[in-house]
Amino acid sequence: TTQQKQDILAQSDIPEQKIQVIPHFIEPSTLPEQERKNQFVYLGRFSKEKRIDHIVKAFKLFKAKDYETKLKLYGGVSDSQEDELKDLISKEGLSEDVDIESFTNHPQEVFRESRASILASTHEGFGLSMMESINEGCPVLAYDIRYGPNEIIEAGENGYLIPTGDIEALAQAMERIINHPLKHVHTRQSLT
């Protein structure tokens, strides 16, 4: 990413002309349009740096305003991680509204049927799942972290950037995306 290049230049004496940003590429979706379910989705590994607890806590704040939206969490979990996540969901009173699913071999369909995908990581190498989501017309709500979200998300066009760690702002972005769905969600031209 451009941010990674800037960080490398700031931390080393490598000449700028020796570093190139190689953009990711994604083929346009071929899936047919379909009606979206009233759900948010997280799709990725279940690990501490993904801050799934932030997603659940923000979802709790969002649900406190009487929204009927569901949350689906897709990813591989160890027994201890799954137990921690289930405990948090239960503690927050969300057992009827949050589903934990295993990995899916059909992420495009999951994104295609969801209202928005959510990324609350502490960091990413790039965040290819954001591009996959947007490619299926599913906007992304993501913490503004290194690396990727601010090079993929155009606020109000294909998602929203949220200050990292701001659970309340993430909940507000959930409200915004439900109350004012984004139309014609697509990847930046430089990424297709």
Automatic annotation (TrEMBL):
Task: Return the protein name.
Answer: Glycosyl transferase family 1
Give the keywords, sorted.
Answer: Transferase
InterPro entries referenced in this protein's UniProt entry, alphabetically: Glyco_trans_1
Domain of life of the organism in this record? Answer: Bacteria
The record lists the organism as: Staphylococcus nepalensis
Give the SUPFAM superfamilies listed for this entry: UDP-Glycosyltransferase/glycogen phosphorylase
User: What GO terms are given for molecular function?
Assistant: glycosyltransferase activity
The Glycosyl transferase family domain sits at 31-183
